[in-house]
């Protein structure tokens, strides 16, 4: 489960977005240790071209008077890859979530921060609730080298590939081409995945040196 992630504003996010032709990078919501149910930035192509929009990090919402809030009965910050074929959002409402790192722990203990040293996209799903958007991060099986830190899953990270990004955001019904990416990989654009222990999941205080999982 991915339940905490970073979007650092000094990590070249806007340049990264421009490389993929994403409009409105000025809308980005930055911050370290973004948490479930908060507003986060997603990239979607609802209006044709990819653009930055804001979404609640919790896919299923419920009415709260005149607005919407995270649904109390359905914890939905992640979408497991094994259930994607049952989700209409996978065929019609895919998004990307800009990030620079994420935090995991092993059964709630020994939290660590994962990063590639540069911005990347989580693959995600979104839903619309009137004028409100919500989102989830897709999780895949853990990689053999990450299981000692978090044995359940790994977030799905989009490859650094213009064609993949375009196809992912197109909303096409045919999802067969994405199957190879539903398996764990720990390199991104030639960069190894780095892991570093932190004091607690929401803390930015490190308790050890980074280690490359190459």
Total strands: 17
**What kind of sheet is the major sheet?**
7 strands, mixed
Mean pLDDT score, rounded?
A: 95
Give the count of helical stretches: 3
The CATH architecture assignment turns out to be Alpha-Beta Complex
The oligomeric state of the chains shown is single chain
So, the CATH homologous superfamily? SOS response associated peptidase-like
Structural class estimated from helices and strands = mainly beta
What sequence of helices (H) and strands (E) makes up the elements? Answer: EHEEEEEEHEEEEEEHEEEE
Highest CATH level, the class:
Alpha Beta
Rounded radius of gyration (Å)? 16 Å
Helix content range: under 10%
In words, what does this structure look like?
The strands form four sheets. Strands 3, 4, 7, 8, 11, 12 and 13 form a seven-stranded mixed sheet that branches. Strands 2-1-9-10-16-17 form a six-stranded antiparallel sheet, with no helix packed on it. It has one domain: SOS response associated peptidase-like (hypothetical protein yedk fold), CATH 3.90.1680. By secondary structure, it is mainly beta. Strand 3 and strand 4 form a beta hairpin. The longest helix has 8 residues. The chain contains three helices and 17 strands. The model has no long low-confidence stretch (mean pLDDT 95).
């Amino acid at each position: 489960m991915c339940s905490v992630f970073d979007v650092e504003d000094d990590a070249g996010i806007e340049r990264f977005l421009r490389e993929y032709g994403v409009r409105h990078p000025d809308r980005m919501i930055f911050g370290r240790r973004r948490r479930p149910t908060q507003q986060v930035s997603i990239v979607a192509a609802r209006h044709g071209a990819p653009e930055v929009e804001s979404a609640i990090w919790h896919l299923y919402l419920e009415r709260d008077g005149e607005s919407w809030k995270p649904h109390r009965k359905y914890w939905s910050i992640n979408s497991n890859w094994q259930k994607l074929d049952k989700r209409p959002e996978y065929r019609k409402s895919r998004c990307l979530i800009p990030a620079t790192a994420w935090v995991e722990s092993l059964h709630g203990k020994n939290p660590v921060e994962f990063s590639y040293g540069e911005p990347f996209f989580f693959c995600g799903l979104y839903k619309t609730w009137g004028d409100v958007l919500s989102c989830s991060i897709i999780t895949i099986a853990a990689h053999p080298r990450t299981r000692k830190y978090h044995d359940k899953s790994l977030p799905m990270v989009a490859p650094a590939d213009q064609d993949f990004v375009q196809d992912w955001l197109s909303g096409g019904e045919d999802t067969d081409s994405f199957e190879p990416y539903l398996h764990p990989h720990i390199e991104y654009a030639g960069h190894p995945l780095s892991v570093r222990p932190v004091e607690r999941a929401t803390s930015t205080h490190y308790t050890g040196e980074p280690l490359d999982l190459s």
